[in-house]
Design a protein that fits this description.
single chain; about 230 residues; mainly alpha; 2 domains; 9 helices; about 65% helix; about 5% strand; globular
């Protein structure tokens, strides 16, 4: 369990203590943009491997146990999570890596819903699984993902403000929101489904269905209630 705790702290510290802070800026000044990105990518892969390996070896210590009644709810919630992750990964976005130059363009597609679709989807996935798996190891594992993803939205916004300046970012930020649909509900934007593209919808739904079908044979746990 100690290895899992250390891996969680390493992963959180890497993404929130370095990636979104002035430490990142200093590292870029020393290593250059490409050098920093290469080093950060390697550290992320190491941290990810450590986290997954430590979780797989951690003892099973029950807190509330696996909740069968939660599984139908989880199946429903995982659809928007899959949509946010897949569509977010394939949509141009000023908050994504190396796409800062798009900040002057009006938000389109899923970015109208949230300016951090990928991270929001990962955060939703993590929270759904944190509730579903009531043991100590799962608490540390999925809480790590939830913290990195959801706090990462704020961290990225702060990083973009330092890089681009508040004046450059505010028009984009004013038309979008971290919380899904908040900007739309406030009348600052509107949802246009066709902008997302049929192929993105199709890939996201296919990924969701494959996840449901493959969950039991690959992970050994059925997502469906008994």
């Amino acid at each position: 369990m100690l290895s899992l705790i250390l891996a969680a702290l390493f992963f959180i510290g890497l993404h929130l203590g370095i990636a979104g802070t002035v430490i990142r800026d200093r590292a870029i000044a020393i290593l250059g943009e490409n050098g920093y990105r290469a080093g950060f990518a390697i550290a992320t892969l190491v941290g990810l491997g450590w986290l997954v390996a430590a979780y797989s070896r951690a003892p099973y210590l029950v807190i509330w146990g696996m909740l069968e009644w939660w599984k139908p709810i989880a199946i429903i919630l995982m659809l928007p999570a899959a949509l946010l992750v897949v569509i977010g990964l394939t949509t141009p976005n000023p908050t994504a890596v190396a796409q800062e130059g798009r900040v002057g363009q009006p938000p389109q597609g899923i970015v109208r819903v949230t300016r951090h679709p990928f991270l929001t989807g990962v955060g939703l996935w993590a929270l759904v699984h944190l509730i579903a798996n009531g043991d100590v190891a799962s608490l540390f594992f999925f809480a790590t993902w939830a913290i990195v993803a959801l706090a990462g939205t704020v961290s990225i916004d702060a990083k973009r403000r330092r890089l681009l300046g508040a004046a450059a970012l505010e028009p984009f930020a004013g038309q979008t929101s971290i919380v899904p649909f908040a900007a739309i509900a406030a009348g600052r934007n509107r949802f246009i489904a066709r902008e997302i593209g049929l192929w993105r919808w199709a890939i996201a739904v296919l990924a969701y269905l494959l996840m449901l079908v493959g969950h039991a044979p690959i992970l050994g746990v059925s997502p469906f209630p008994l």
